Structure formats: structure tokens, C-alpha cells
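Pinned message: reference record for 4-hydroxymandelate oxidase
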Amino acid sequence: MEHELDAARSTADVERLAAECLAPDVWDYVAGGSGDEVTVAANRAAFDRVRVVPRALVDVSACDTGCELFGARAALPLVVAPMAYQRLIHADGERGAAEAAAAAGVPYTISTLSSEPLEAVARAGGVTWFQLYWLRDRDLVRNLLRRAEDAGCRAVVLTVDVPVMGRRLRDLRNGFALPSSVQPVNLGDEVRERVPGDSALARHTRAAFDPSLSWRDLEWIREHTSLPLLVKGILDPRDAVRAVEEGVDGLVVSNHGGRQLDGAVPAVTALPDIVAAVANRCPVLVDSGVRSGVDVVRALALGATAVLLGRPVLWGLGAGGRGGVAKVLDLLRDELDTALRLAGCPDVAAAHDLAVR
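Predicted structure (C-alpha cells):
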């Protein structure tokens, strides 16, 4: 498999390798979305509809792919998205993925539902962010925020689009549950009881997550952390404006990769209106469907500060552990460098001025 991974020339190649390596129910967990997976497909179709207008006669003999993200330099305008239970995909798990992100010079977001302690993942080096789900147990939320800050995380990413888990039919049909060796260790819970026709992950979410999350809770979070606060899961410009008014430090335009409301607008389609509504008052990032360096340029041209990369990282992990994640990030770096030069952009800032059709 190592030779095949070396030969991969796109994230689609890595996806095929991961599909061969993972057990069918685990692959369904990674690849699947909610409902009929209309939004999963729409995310990709929406990116492919974005046509960038390259500039000509620009000196691109040198190209700077880096940018500043919340006080830290990133080698790419890219952050590894928060994703749960990565030891389910490969024994290298979150630490391996975080080590690969650190080597690539991009931030890594530790999930509340990490299968390794957040402190251990943060020690992998590099810049780490912490993703927070709103839990019924406020003492546990408070403790997680303190632990993230003590571990050196540089930002908190509050996910707001999971009051309940979407109906992920593949998981329901598989009666999906976690093995005893893979659990949400930061919460101290177990998610391993298999029930035919039901998802142990969905049952756990119903029990642990608090669907009453509202705007008033942002102030409580602010009181319990000094870290920059990003809100992830924004698709309506009205919510973007409200978030800015409430003092958030950044937004992530996201439909959770098509895993929540099936039929939701593709994130990249929602992006331009949100960028316009925010009017440079805070950084706006986007995820859901990013697969290549060209996609990164598309997002930048539509006004995004950076992208979050999700499933391709899991594909890399499944195909080759830490080395597979490194391969995916290397591919994205090379693709982005080429795409920027071909678009007439000597740096990331120039991509924000590209026209799209």
C-alpha cells in the first residue's frame, strides 16, 4: 500500500486506497452523509461550478502560499477540520494526523470527540485549535475549555449545527458502533453498544449534546476562555451578522460535509453572501467539499480567508496513517502552488482579487 500511496497524484487516488483499506462499515461512516446524501453531492457540484478568471502577465516566478490565521503563520490557507474518532481509521489516530499537520505547517483542530486525550494531540507540535460541542454537562464544557487553553490550543471552534445528529442512513443500516479501543476519551463515555437498525453515535449525541444552544450561550463561553472564538456551521448571512455583533472572532461557513441537514445549501454557494454581510469584520473560513488546491483558490476568490479540510485527511489516515495524511497535505500544497501561479497570483492575497463566473 505504501507504493500505491507514493503513486497517488490526487486526493481522489488516496480516497480509492482508503476505501480498499477500511472495513465497509467504517468506510460508510467516513464517506456517508445524512438522508439521501443530496448535500454531500451538492457540495462537490457547487465547487465545480465556480469558474475562476485568471490574470495574465503577472510575475509568478515566486509564489507565497502562506497566510496569517489568528496570530499564527500557516504555510497554506488551510486548517485540518475537527473530525471525531480518528483511531477508528488508523492506529496513528489524532496524534499522527496532528504530527502531519505540524510538519506541513498548518493548524490542526482537535475534536471534542477525539479518540485521544486533547493534551496528547496538542503535544504533537504545531498549531492546534480545539473544537467544542455544546454539552448538557456545563462543568465538563468548562473543564474542556480550561484543558484546551492549558494545552496551548490557539482558538476554540464552536460547532453550532448539531443540536441533534442528522439521520445518517448508512450508520443506521449498519447498526454502527465503536470498538472498545476507540471511545470519546475527553468525555469519559462509551459508544460501543450495537443495536440493529440504530447508530450508537446518534444515541450518544442525543444523550450528551444540549440542543438548547443559543446566542446567549456565547457570552458564557467567552467568560470561560480567553482564546479566539470561531463559530462553525453558519450558512445564513443573518446569522453571520448576528455572530459578528455578538463579538465572535471568526466564522466557518459549513454544512458539516453534508452530514446534518440533507438538502442544505452547499457551503461554497453560501460563502459570497456571508462574506459580503460580514464586510471584513472577521475572518470567514469555509469547509464541506474541499478536495484540491484548485478548490482552495476557488474559495479564496469567493472571499474566504482559508478552508478547513475534512474527509481527504481521513482518506490519507486510512490509506497510510500519519504518512497518508502527510501525502494528502503535500498534494494540496503542490496543487495550490500550481493553481495560484496559473491564476496569476504570486500570493494568497492576490487570489482574493480574482473574478469568478
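Pinned by admin. Summary line: The chain has one domain: 2-356.
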